[in-house]
Amino acid sequence: MIFYLCHRLHANTLASLLIYFRRDLQDFVRIVPYEERNHLLAISSATVIWTDLDRLSQSEIQSSAELSEQLRIGQPDIVQLNHPAKTLQRFDLLRLLYADGSNRFNVYRPEKLPDELRFPVFLRDEAGATYKTPRLLNTPEQLRVEIANLGAARFVRPMVVEFESKPLRDGYYRKYAAYRAGDHSYAQHCFASRDWFIKDPGKGMAGAHLAEHAAYVRDNPHAAELMPIFEKAAISYGRIDYTIVDARIQVFEINTNPTVLNYPPTIFDSYDSLPYANMHADALMRLPHAQDRVSHPDIDRAHLHLLGRLRTKYRRRRVKLTVRKGFSLFKDTVLGAKASTDTGNQSR
């Protein structure tokens, strides 16, 4: 059995995988909110994955670390991925990678900025995910104004990050992402965009960029270079996001609770997400004791409650996506037919 510990409000990262693409994993995976973590003391063998560490308070990290130690000593057949207290979070990881020469950019706390700060920079929160493109700040004055307005941003642990990315010859930036699950890793995506901040390029990928993405996923070309970075971070489960600048890997972060598949499937999908679901499922099922079906009734109860809530949420999301994609397809079809008719009329 795999026990996946996460923040109760962020259990959606495995939702599409478990509910739609690989329902068979429901026999082997339990999503465990941190409030239920002490029930793990009743488990004899399993893989326990500690995630969402950036969203925990210091006291929650401490108590989880104490439980992790109890499991290590008293239940040696439980394999633990990540460690609540030893796993490096974003800030400390980026500081380390700059110090050892891996990254060419540094990161600072707003209250401890050096005179040699290299512009442009941007502000982001160490906790959680960033969905809106941060503003690139080119001068100390712009940075001072942005820091003065941090209260409105409601950041938990703000960071000032030096900008380090540049487009390739085609004018497009790249973001790569690869997963690690225990001793196994796989490449998940190579996104290309004219914007430097890339979350999901949507319809912006076509032709050569799609071929590049497929080759990256197939070949996992940076696996040997990425594994030592995971080791430095003491992260044995997570997704590393990075780019390549002048032939050097530049790491943005390693997310310990990454979303495996963003969207539920619809009949109008123009791509097949199942291969990506299978890659993650295969990685999970390689973990020690993954196919042992021994759980705890209280953990099962919490898991089923979360899964039920997510099923309802994703059912609504699926309906909305279906309507939106269906309308978009209809509009494209109508416009395409109109353009064809106009072309025909002009040629007469």
Give a summary of the structure in a few sentences:
The chain has helices at 15-21, 58-74, 90-99, 140-148, 150-153, 208-219, 223-233, 274-285, 297-347, and strands at residues 2-6, 29-33, 46-50, 78-81, 107-108, 121-125, 158-162, 173-181, 184-193, 237-245, 248-255. The mean pLDDT is 93. It is of the alpha/beta class and 348 residues long.
Shape: globular
Unreliable segments of 5+ consecutive residues: none
- Give the spatial strand order of the biggest sheet: 2-1-3-4
Largest sheet: 4 strands, parallel
Number of domains: 3
| Order of H and E elements | EHEEHEHEEHHEEEHHEEHH
Number of helices: 9
Helix content: 25-40%
Keywords:
single chain; 348 residues; alpha/beta; D-amino Acid Aminotransferase, Chain A, domain 1; Dna Ligase, domain 1; four-stranded parallel β-sheet; four-stranded antiparallel β-sheet; 9 helices; globular
Which SSEs are present, and which pair or pack?
Elements: E1 2-6, H1 15-21, E2 29-33, E3 46-50, H2 58-74, E4 78-81, H3 90-99, E5 107-108, E6 121-125, H4 140-148, H5 150-153, E7 158-162, E8 173-181, E9 184-193, H6 208-219, H7 223-233, E10 237-245, E11 248-255, H8 274-285, H9 297-347
Parallel strand pairs: 1-2, 1-3, 3-4
Antiparallel strand pairs: 5-7, 6-7, 8-9, 8-10, 10-11
